[in-house]
Amino acid sequence: MNSADINAEPNGGLNNAELVNKDSFERLRSKNRHKEFRRKIFYLFVSLLLCAVVGTVCVVFFFGLKHVEVRGNGKYTSDEIIASCGFEGSENLFGIDLASLRTKLQSSYPYIRNVSFRRVLPSTLIITVEEDSPAWFTDIYGEWFILSPSLRVISRFDMREEIDVQELGVTYIKLPPVRSAVAGSNVSFVRTADYGYFVSFLSEIKGYSFFSESIDSIDASDRYRLTVYSSGGKYKINLGTSDNLEAKVRFVTKVIETAFDSTTIASVDVEYLTSVIVLKQTDLFVFPER
Predict the structure, then answer these.
(1) How many CA atoms lie within 13 A of 187 on its CB side?
(2) What is its main location (predicted)?
(3) Could you read off the pLDDT of 56-96 as tens digits, one per residue?
């Protein structure tokens, strides 16, 4: 062992008193750091609380609902729609339950298909509505209904005579068995798959120029024997199913345009394109409930 080892003092040359003071200083510094951290957390919490209070006060006093604007409406007046909202004048622009308001308007006004809202600061609510158009009418369990292109119920009548077909521009359709028909909702069929099937068929059949304006009525009570009456009862067209609809319509159009004259009355059966049947007759077809 050399002289350096013998003369070296333990604890870095610090005596016991100095060691105690150093430990106390470290503990004090650690304690102060914790206090400073807690103080910062407290100030942050107070700041956030004050911001929340100020924000709430601003929302309450500066964003009160004062103006309501309705856009896109045609069937119903703006005053009717605003009155149905039930605003009392004390509402806050950000406190309105828009989802409930949308449901309320759609149930009160069946022609309204969709509703959207936009807040315009500081105090205006803009209500934009999308309205359905009447396309079909039908009878279900003794009641009469006006339907949209998507078979959504938009009106109900007790008697057929109450429906102004010409004014509404609607076409009669005989539907397959229906489970329920509620204003503002789509028709519910006994066979669930029928809804999508018939909406697709009706949309497609209306898209062909020959049928777009000449359809008198459609018998869709049997999805496997879809029948269209057109041109004031002159033509009865059996389509079978909606399969190969484009080819069937093209064939029917060609037959009527090239093989019939203006006085021809006939039934055309294109259920099977390989064996089309055309039968002429003298009397107009009696089509359902025009």
Answers:
(1) 34
(2) membrane
(3) 666 556 778 999 999 999 999 999 999 999 998 788 888 89
